[in-house]
Amino acid sequence: QVQLVESGGGLVQPGGSLTLSCSVSENPGDMYATGWYRQTPGNERELVAAITRVGFANYANSVKGRFTIDRDNAEKTVSLQMNSLRPEDTAVYYCFARREFMTSFNEYDWGQGTQVTVSS
To answer: What phi and psi, each to the nearest 5 degrees, are found at residue 54?
Structure first.
């Protein structure tokens, strides 16, 4: 099982920036995909951004142009740079690892989550 530990959440004003970091116990470049989901109370987790083994990045439409995902295989970290934050970005953000293409959502490895609150 891959161990993931998030850091970097907090309170930020609308229009501000935050960077989330995820420390991964194995080389994230060996995973089919790693990245970030977020979840608000009463809702399912939604994909925010992911980066594949070959370096392809994809984003939720709501964050395109504002968020950037990056990966450092040597440091075994996956980061999420979040700019121009909005109140609707408020959520618990979870780092995930999908080991292989055939790995189902229920088999993803997850971090413990980090709270991001965007409020004035």
So the answer is: -90, 5
Q: Which residues contact 35 (CB under 8 A, 6 or more apart)?
A: 47, 48, 49, 50, 51, 69, 78, 80, 95, 96
- Going from the C-alpha of 53 to that of each of 27, 74, 85, 100, 101, the distances in angstroms are 10, 14, 28, 9, 10
Q: What pLDDT, on the 0 to 100 scale, is given for residue 93?
A: 98
Nearest to 71 by CA among 58, 59, 48, 53: 53
Burial class (CB in 10 A: 0-12, 13-18, 19+), 78: buried
pLDDT digit string, tens, across residues 40-79: 999 999 999 999 999 999 999 999 999 999 999 999 999 9
Amino acid at 40: T
- C-beta separation of 14 from 85 below 8 A: yes
Q: pLDDT tier at 96 (50, 70, 90 boundaries)?
A: very high
pLDDT of res. 51: 97
Percent of the chain that is helix, strand, coil (3-state, to 5):
10, 50, 45
